[in-house]
Structure formats: structure tokens, C-alpha cells
Write a structure and sequence with these properties.
Helix content: 10-25%
Strand content: 25-35%
Number of strands: 4
Distance between the termini: 33 Å
Oligomer: single chain
Radius of gyration: 16 Å
Mean pLDDT: 82
Number of helices: 1
Low-confidence stretches: none
Largest sheet: 4 strands, antiparallel
Strand order of the largest sheet: 2-1-3-4
Structural class: alpha+beta
Shape: elongated
């Protein structure tokens, strides 16, 4: 799935989710589009790096990788 982005210089493009993550980290994106509309970087909620403070069990790993 490609994501529509607006760069800091107002140009628009379509990028992969991986490219969006890199562009966000480099602060090169002003906005990107979700199904609900444009997300303004720095104002609206943007997904994190996945390294929050969750202390529960890791549920995303496959059972074979957890030693279960």
C-alpha cells in the first residue's frame, strides 16, 4: 500500500510505509494521508517507533519464537 505524503517544500508524492517511517525520522514530511484525512506531523497523532513502555508479554511474536 502506498501512502500520499506532502514534503516540507509542499511537493506531494506516494511512498511505501517503510519510506514514510524514514521520512518522518528525517523530519522531511509536513503531512501524510490516512483514510480519515491528512495527518499534520507535529500536531496530530503519529505512530511511534514501537518502543514504548509496555511491560506485558510480547504478543506480536510467533509462538515458535517465544519458546512456547
Amino acid at each position: 500500500m502506498m501512502i500520499q505524503v506532502m514534503y516540507s517544500d509542499w511537493r506531494q508524492d506516494m511512498v511505501s510505509p517503510e519510506a514514510l517511517d524514514r521520512l518522518l525520522a528525517l523530519r522531511r514530511v509536513k503531512k501524510f494521508k490516512r483514510f480519515s484525512g491528512w495527518v499534520r506531523v507535529g500536531f496530530d497523532s503519529v505512530r511511534g517507533s514501537g518502543r514504548g513502555n509496555y511491560n506485558g508479554p510480547e504478543r506480536r511474536l510467533h509462538p515458535l519464537n517465544r519458546g512456547v
